[in-house]
Write a structure and sequence with these properties.
It is a single chain. This protein is an alpha+beta fold. The protein is 34% helix and 21% strand. It is built from five helices and nine strands, in the order H-E-E-E-H-E-H-E-E-E-H-E-E-H. The chain has helices at 3-21, 84-94, 105-113, 148-157, 180-200, and strands spanning 31-38, 41-46, 60-63, 98-102, 118-121, 136-139, 141-142, 165-168, 172-177. A seven-stranded mixed β-sheet has the order 3-2-1-4-9-8-7, sandwiched between helices. The protein has a two-stranded antiparallel sheet with strand order 5-6. A hairpin with a 3-residue loop joins strand 8 (165-168) and strand 9 (172-177). The chain is globular. The chain starts with a helix and ends in an 8-residue tail after the last helix. Its cofactor is Zn(2+). One of its GO terms (molecular function) is methylthioribulose 1-phosphate dehydratase activity. InterPro entries: Aldolase_II/adducin_N (IPR001303), Aldolase_II/adducin_N_sf (IPR036409), MethylthioRu-1-P_deHdtase_MtnB (IPR017714).
Length: 208
């Protein structure tokens, strides 16, 4: 692999292991990406069908703006997730340097409870998402679909540059940032915010 792709693969493997350990990427679920270039758009995405707690630096696929694997792959047998198309759409629309997709239970439960958007307000942890502690942030919830163009359109329709996340109903959470570390920090903050909001509204605390 090129040195850039190898570094990206190592970072993706490390973050995947961390999030798998938190219970956010059970089985082979979830996927992470980093943006390699923008003209044309290229992303390194974790390979499909692998245990996210045991990825190697080579377990990545380079995809284009549609989420399709580009032909000149270092490891052509690896397949990108079917959800790579939404990663690419988020990277293009939000200018994200990294996208995290996890099956965080607190996000899915919150999306089930508030299908019109999860309102987070007056909490210090909002600062971790670039908002004031007295701010109100509504995380959009979109209907699930196996068609990434449909999901991408739904994401873009509700996109707010100040809200770096979207819940996919009964499925999971997408979070993005300028790099993997910021995307991870935002994901961690959102889990706390969802947990608090559910508990404050009479729901038993959700773990993982």
């Amino acid at each position: 692999m090129s040195s850039e792709l190898e570094r990206a693969g190592a970072a993706l493997a490390a973050e995947s292991a961390r999030m798998a350990g938190l219970g956010w990427m059970r089985g082979t679920s979830g996927n992470l990406s980093v943006t390699l270039g923008r003209d044309p758009l290229r992303l390194a995405v974790t390979a499909s069908g692998l245990d996210k707690g045991e990825l190697r630096a080579s377990d990545v696929v380079v995809v284009d703006e549609a989420g399709a694997a580009v032909p000149d792959q270092p490891n052509p047998d690896q397949r990108p997730s079917a959800e790579a198309g939404l990663h690419a759409r988020i990277a293009a629309v939000a200018g994200a340097g990294a996208v995290v997709h996890v099956h965080m239970l607190s996000a899915v439960v919150a999306g089930q409870r508030w299908p019109d958007g999860v309102v987070l307000r007056d909490l210090e942890m909002l600062k971790g998402l670039g908002r004031r502690d007295d701010d109100v942030m509504t995380v959009p919830v979109v209907s699930n679909s196996q068609d990434m163009r449909v999901l991408g359109d739904a994401f873009e329709a509700g996109f707010d540059a100040a809200t770096p996340a979207v819940v996919v109903a009964r499925h999971g959470l997408y979070v993005w940032g300028r790099d993997l570390v910021q995307a991870r920090h935002r994901t961690e903050c959102l889990d706390w915010l969802f947990q608090f909001t559910l508990a404050a509204n009479g729901f038993q605390e959700v773990v993982a």
